[in-house]
Automatic annotation (TrEMBL):
Record's keyword terms, sorted: ATP-binding, Nucleotide-binding
Organism: Veillonella magna
Domain ABC transporter: 13-245
Protein name: ABC transporter ATP-binding protein
Gene Ontology MF terms in the entry: ATP binding
Pfam hit, one: ABC_tran
Matching InterPro entries: AAA+_ATPase, ABC_transporter-like_ATP-bd, ABC_transporter-like_CS, P-loop_NTPase
Amino acid sequence: MADNVKKLRLHEIRIDGLSYTVDNATILHDLSVTLPADRFVGLIGPNGCGKSTLLKHLYRVLPVQQGVIYFDDVPISAISLGEAAQCIGVMGQFHAVQFDFTVWQVAMMGRTPYKKHFDEDTEEDYRIAAEALRRVGMWEKAERSFLSLSGGEQQRVMLARVLTQEPTYLILDEPTNHLDITYQFELLSLVKDLDIGVIAALHDLNLAAMFCDEVVVMEKGRVVTMGPPNAVLTENLIQRIYGVPSVVSRHSEGYPMIRYERPSHGPA
Ligand SMILES: Nc1ncnc2c1ncn2[C@@H]1O[C@H](COP(=O)(O)OP(=O)(O)OP(=O)(O)O)[C@@H](O)[C@H]1O
Protein backbone atom coordinates (compact mmCIF):
# COMPACT_ATOMS: atom_id res chain seq x y z
CA MET A 1 0.00 0.00 0.00
CA ALA A 2 1.26 3.47 -0.79
CA ASP A 3 2.67 5.20 2.31
CA ASN A 4 0.56 8.30 1.86
CA VAL A 5 -2.74 6.44 1.92
CA LYS A 6 -4.45 6.72 5.29
CA LYS A 7 -6.85 3.85 5.61
CA LEU A 8 -10.17 4.17 7.32
CA ARG A 9 -10.53 1.29 9.78
CA LEU A 10 -14.07 0.84 10.92
CA HIS A 11 -15.21 -0.43 14.28
CA GLU A 12 -18.95 -0.25 13.84
CA ILE A 13 -21.67 0.67 11.41
CA ARG A 14 -24.73 2.18 13.01
CA ILE A 15 -27.91 2.21 11.00
CA ASP A 16 -30.53 4.44 12.47
CA GLY A 17 -34.12 4.38 11.21
CA LEU A 18 -33.33 3.38 7.62
CA SER A 19 -36.39 3.10 5.38
CA TYR A 20 -36.37 2.52 1.65
CA THR A 21 -39.33 2.61 -0.71
CA VAL A 22 -39.40 1.93 -4.44
CA ASP A 23 -42.43 1.78 -6.72
CA ASN A 24 -44.71 2.26 -3.70
CA ALA A 25 -43.23 -0.83 -2.03
CA THR A 26 -41.44 -0.29 1.26
CA ILE A 27 -38.47 -2.63 1.27
CA LEU A 28 -36.67 -1.52 4.43
CA HIS A 29 -38.84 -0.51 7.37
CA ASP A 30 -37.35 1.91 9.87
CA LEU A 31 -34.40 -0.43 10.26
CA SER A 32 -32.03 0.23 13.14
CA VAL A 33 -29.06 -1.94 13.99
CA THR A 34 -25.43 -1.58 15.04
CA LEU A 35 -23.13 -3.90 13.12
CA PRO A 36 -19.64 -4.67 14.38
CA ALA A 37 -17.36 -3.69 11.48
CA ASP A 38 -14.23 -5.38 12.78
CA ARG A 39 -15.55 -8.94 12.70
CA PHE A 40 -17.07 -11.37 10.22
CA VAL A 41 -20.80 -10.69 10.21
CA GLY A 42 -23.27 -12.84 8.29
CA LEU A 43 -26.52 -11.38 7.00
CA ILE A 44 -29.19 -14.03 6.62
CA GLY A 45 -32.90 -14.17 5.90
CA PRO A 46 -35.32 -15.50 3.29
CA ASN A 47 -35.34 -14.44 -0.37
CA GLY A 48 -36.61 -10.92 -0.78
CA CYS A 49 -36.23 -9.89 2.88
CA GLY A 50 -34.00 -6.95 1.95
CA LYS A 51 -30.42 -8.17 2.45
CA SER A 52 -29.09 -6.84 -0.88
CA THR A 53 -31.04 -3.62 -0.47
CA LEU A 54 -29.41 -3.05 2.91
CA LEU A 55 -25.92 -3.86 1.56
CA LYS A 56 -26.43 -1.55 -1.42
CA HIS A 57 -27.02 1.29 1.04
CA LEU A 58 -23.69 0.46 2.71
CA TYR A 59 -21.79 0.55 -0.58
CA ARG A 60 -23.77 3.52 -1.76
CA VAL A 61 -25.46 2.21 -4.83
CA LEU A 62 -28.74 3.23 -3.21
CA PRO A 63 -29.19 6.68 -1.68
CA VAL A 64 -30.41 7.01 1.89
CA GLN A 65 -34.03 8.17 1.60
CA GLN A 66 -34.83 8.18 5.27
CA GLY A 67 -32.65 7.57 8.33
CA VAL A 68 -28.88 7.80 8.83
CA ILE A 69 -26.00 5.37 8.38
CA TYR A 70 -22.90 6.09 10.45
CA PHE A 71 -19.48 4.59 9.77
CA ASP A 72 -18.15 4.87 13.31
CA ASP A 73 -19.46 8.34 14.17
CA VAL A 74 -19.34 9.76 10.66
CA PRO A 75 -22.52 9.88 8.55
CA ILE A 76 -21.94 7.97 5.33
CA SER A 77 -22.75 11.09 3.30
CA ALA A 78 -19.70 12.84 4.79
CA ILE A 79 -17.23 10.19 3.61
CA SER A 80 -15.84 10.91 0.15
CA LEU A 81 -16.30 8.26 -2.51
CA GLY A 82 -12.52 8.22 -3.05
CA GLU A 83 -11.80 7.52 0.61
CA ALA A 84 -14.51 4.86 0.71
CA ALA A 85 -13.18 3.18 -2.44
CA GLN A 86 -9.73 2.71 -0.90
CA CYS A 87 -11.15 1.13 2.24
CA ILE A 88 -14.34 -0.69 1.34
CA GLY A 89 -14.25 -3.65 -1.02
CA VAL A 90 -17.49 -4.83 -2.57
CA MET A 91 -18.42 -8.07 -4.27
CA GLY A 92 -21.99 -7.68 -5.48
CA GLN A 93 -24.28 -10.31 -6.95
CA PHE A 94 -23.74 -9.24 -10.53
CA HIS A 95 -20.35 -8.74 -12.04
CA ALA A 96 -19.85 -5.27 -13.42
CA VAL A 97 -17.60 -6.42 -16.26
CA GLN A 98 -19.38 -6.11 -19.58
CA PHE A 99 -16.43 -5.65 -21.89
CA ASP A 100 -13.96 -8.30 -22.79
CA PHE A 101 -11.14 -7.67 -20.34
CA THR A 102 -8.55 -10.28 -19.46
CA VAL A 103 -8.43 -11.78 -15.99
CA TRP A 104 -5.26 -9.78 -15.37
CA GLN A 105 -6.94 -6.50 -16.38
CA VAL A 106 -9.88 -7.19 -14.08
CA ALA A 107 -7.54 -7.92 -11.16
CA MET A 108 -5.64 -4.68 -11.88
CA MET A 109 -8.90 -2.69 -11.71
CA GLY A 110 -8.66 -3.08 -7.94
CA ARG A 111 -5.77 -0.58 -7.99
CA THR A 112 -7.89 2.16 -9.60
CA PRO A 113 -8.83 3.92 -6.32
CA TYR A 114 -5.11 4.57 -5.75
CA LYS A 115 -4.56 6.28 -9.09
CA LYS A 116 -4.89 9.80 -10.24
CA HIS A 117 -5.45 10.52 -13.93
CA PHE A 118 -2.55 9.30 -16.08
CA ASP A 119 -0.75 7.58 -13.18
CA GLU A 120 1.20 4.60 -14.49
CA ASP A 121 0.83 1.19 -12.92
CA THR A 122 3.80 0.39 -10.70
CA GLU A 123 5.77 -2.77 -9.92
CA GLU A 124 3.96 -2.74 -6.56
CA ASP A 125 0.56 -2.74 -8.34
CA TYR A 126 1.68 -5.74 -10.43
CA ARG A 127 2.94 -7.60 -7.37
CA ILE A 128 -0.32 -7.04 -5.48
CA ALA A 129 -2.52 -8.11 -8.43
CA ALA A 130 -0.41 -11.23 -9.11
CA GLU A 131 -0.53 -12.20 -5.45
CA ALA A 132 -4.32 -11.77 -5.40
CA LEU A 133 -4.76 -13.97 -8.50
CA ARG A 134 -2.55 -16.63 -6.94
CA ARG A 135 -4.57 -16.56 -3.73
CA VAL A 136 -7.82 -17.27 -5.59
CA GLY A 137 -6.20 -19.92 -7.82
CA MET A 138 -6.58 -17.90 -11.04
CA TRP A 139 -2.98 -16.92 -11.79
CA GLU A 140 -2.65 -19.59 -14.50
CA LYS A 141 -5.64 -18.04 -16.29
CA ALA A 142 -4.39 -14.44 -16.08
CA GLU A 143 -4.39 -14.01 -19.87
CA ARG A 144 -7.83 -15.54 -20.40
CA SER A 145 -10.84 -13.42 -21.35
CA PHE A 146 -12.96 -12.75 -18.24
CA LEU A 147 -16.18 -13.31 -20.18
CA SER A 148 -15.02 -16.79 -21.26
CA LEU A 149 -14.73 -17.99 -17.65
CA SER A 150 -17.29 -20.07 -15.79
CA GLY A 151 -19.49 -18.34 -13.21
CA GLY A 152 -17.38 -19.68 -10.35
CA GLU A 153 -14.11 -18.66 -12.01
CA GLN A 154 -15.51 -15.16 -12.62
CA GLN A 155 -16.47 -14.97 -8.97
CA ARG A 156 -12.92 -15.88 -7.92
CA VAL A 157 -11.48 -13.22 -10.24
CA MET A 158 -13.86 -10.66 -8.76
CA LEU A 159 -12.56 -11.63 -5.34
CA ALA A 160 -9.01 -11.10 -6.63
CA ARG A 161 -10.02 -7.63 -7.80
CA VAL A 162 -11.37 -6.86 -4.35
CA LEU A 163 -8.19 -8.18 -2.69
CA THR A 164 -6.07 -6.06 -5.03
CA GLN A 165 -7.90 -3.07 -3.64
CA GLU A 166 -6.46 -3.94 -0.18
CA PRO A 167 -9.67 -3.03 1.64
CA THR A 168 -10.06 -2.74 5.38
CA TYR A 169 -13.76 -3.65 5.19
CA LEU A 170 -15.52 -6.05 2.86
CA ILE A 171 -19.15 -6.13 1.74
CA LEU A 172 -20.06 -9.43 0.08
CA ASP A 173 -23.48 -10.12 -1.40
CA GLU A 174 -23.91 -13.88 -1.66
CA PRO A 175 -20.22 -14.40 -2.45
CA THR A 176 -20.48 -18.18 -2.75
CA ASN A 177 -23.52 -18.53 -5.01
CA HIS A 178 -21.70 -19.87 -8.10
CA LEU A 179 -19.02 -21.79 -6.26
CA ASP A 180 -18.69 -25.50 -5.70
CA ILE A 181 -18.24 -26.60 -2.12
CA THR A 182 -14.42 -26.59 -2.34
CA TYR A 183 -14.34 -22.96 -3.42
CA GLN A 184 -17.11 -21.95 -1.00
CA PHE A 185 -14.81 -23.06 1.80
CA GLU A 186 -11.73 -21.56 0.14
CA LEU A 187 -13.37 -18.20 -0.44
CA LEU A 188 -14.76 -17.90 3.06
CA SER A 189 -11.52 -19.18 4.67
CA LEU A 190 -9.49 -16.75 2.60
CA VAL A 191 -11.75 -13.85 3.55
CA LYS A 192 -11.71 -14.89 7.20
CA ASP A 193 -7.90 -15.06 7.18
CA LEU A 194 -7.71 -11.47 5.94
CA ASP A 195 -8.67 -10.54 9.47
CA ILE A 196 -10.63 -7.47 8.42
CA GLY A 197 -14.27 -6.53 9.00
CA VAL A 198 -16.71 -8.32 6.74
CA ILE A 199 -20.44 -8.29 6.17
CA ALA A 200 -21.62 -11.09 3.94
CA ALA A 201 -25.14 -11.96 2.84
CA LEU A 202 -25.22 -15.75 3.00
CA HIS A 203 -27.93 -18.27 2.23
CA ASP A 204 -26.17 -21.33 3.59
CA LEU A 205 -26.79 -21.29 7.32
CA ASN A 206 -24.14 -23.95 7.95
CA LEU A 207 -21.49 -21.81 6.26
CA ALA A 208 -22.70 -18.83 8.29
CA ALA A 209 -22.42 -20.95 11.44
CA MET A 210 -18.86 -22.01 10.61
CA PHE A 211 -17.38 -18.69 9.52
CA CYS A 212 -19.32 -15.84 11.13
CA ASP A 213 -18.57 -14.23 14.47
CA GLU A 214 -22.03 -12.66 14.46
CA VAL A 215 -25.17 -13.35 12.48
CA VAL A 216 -27.82 -10.73 11.67
CA VAL A 217 -31.24 -12.10 10.77
CA MET A 218 -33.59 -10.13 8.53
CA GLU A 219 -37.25 -10.70 7.78
CA LYS A 220 -39.54 -8.50 5.67
CA GLY A 221 -37.24 -5.48 5.65
CA ARG A 222 -36.42 -5.54 9.34
CA VAL A 223 -33.66 -6.97 11.54
CA VAL A 224 -35.26 -9.50 13.86
CA THR A 225 -32.24 -10.57 15.88
CA MET A 226 -28.45 -10.72 15.89
CA GLY A 227 -25.73 -12.40 17.90
CA PRO A 228 -23.17 -15.21 17.78
CA PRO A 229 -24.25 -18.20 15.61
CA ASN A 230 -24.77 -20.43 18.65
CA ALA A 231 -27.23 -17.99 20.17
CA VAL A 232 -29.07 -17.12 16.95
CA LEU A 233 -29.20 -20.24 14.78
CA THR A 234 -31.70 -22.23 16.79
CA GLU A 235 -34.35 -24.72 15.67
CA ASN A 236 -37.06 -22.25 16.70
CA LEU A 237 -35.61 -19.38 14.68
CA ILE A 238 -35.09 -21.50 11.57
CA GLN A 239 -38.67 -22.77 11.79
CA ARG A 240 -40.03 -19.26 12.35
CA ILE A 241 -38.03 -17.48 9.64
CA TYR A 242 -37.80 -20.17 6.95
CA GLY A 243 -40.70 -22.47 7.89
CA VAL A 244 -38.35 -25.47 7.78
CA PRO A 245 -37.95 -27.88 10.68
CA SER A 246 -34.38 -28.69 11.65
CA VAL A 247 -32.22 -30.30 14.27
CA VAL A 248 -29.34 -28.16 15.50
CA SER A 249 -26.40 -29.87 17.17
CA ARG A 250 -22.98 -28.58 18.16
CA HIS A 251 -19.74 -29.35 16.31
CA SER A 252 -16.78 -30.32 18.50
CA GLU A 253 -15.22 -26.97 17.57
CA GLY A 254 -18.25 -25.22 19.05
CA TYR A 255 -20.24 -23.94 16.09
CA PRO A 256 -23.85 -25.04 15.43
CA MET A 257 -24.56 -27.68 12.78
CA ILE A 258 -27.98 -27.62 11.15
CA ARG A 259 -29.66 -30.68 9.71
CA TYR A 260 -32.89 -29.91 7.92
CA GLU A 261 -35.97 -32.07 8.04
CA ARG A 262 -38.37 -32.31 5.15
CA PRO A 263 -41.34 -29.99 5.88
CA SER A 264 -44.64 -31.88 6.10
CA HIS A 265 -47.29 -30.73 3.63
CA GLY A 266 -50.21 -32.62 5.13
CA PRO A 267 -53.52 -30.97 6.05
CA ALA A 268 -53.19 -28.19 8.63
N1 LIG B 1 -36.09 -1.62 -7.94
C1 LIG B 1 -37.00 -2.38 -7.33
N2 LIG B 1 -38.31 -2.27 -7.63
C2 LIG B 1 -39.23 -3.02 -7.01
N3 LIG B 1 -38.94 -3.91 -6.04
C3 LIG B 1 -37.66 -4.06 -5.71
C4 LIG B 1 -36.62 -3.31 -6.32
N4 LIG B 1 -35.45 -3.68 -5.76
C5 LIG B 1 -35.76 -4.63 -4.84
N5 LIG B 1 -37.08 -4.86 -4.82
C6 LIG B 1 -37.79 -5.82 -3.96
O1 LIG B 1 -37.33 -5.64 -2.66
C7 LIG B 1 -37.34 -6.87 -1.96
C8 LIG B 1 -35.98 -7.07 -1.31
O2 LIG B 1 -35.02 -7.34 -2.33
P1 LIG B 1 -33.52 -7.73 -1.98
O3 LIG B 1 -32.83 -8.01 -3.26
O4 LIG B 1 -32.96 -6.70 -1.09
O5 LIG B 1 -33.74 -9.07 -1.13
P2 LIG B 1 -32.69 -10.16 -0.68
O6 LIG B 1 -32.98 -10.45 0.76
O7 LIG B 1 -31.31 -9.76 -1.01
O8 LIG B 1 -33.16 -11.40 -1.56
P3 LIG B 1 -32.39 -12.69 -2.14
O9 LIG B 1 -32.04 -13.53 -0.96
O10 LIG B 1 -33.45 -13.33 -2.97
O11 LIG B 1 -31.21 -12.23 -2.94
C9 LIG B 1 -37.71 -7.95 -2.97
O12 LIG B 1 -39.08 -8.26 -2.81
C10 LIG B 1 -37.46 -7.27 -4.30
O13 LIG B 1 -38.33 -7.76 -5.30
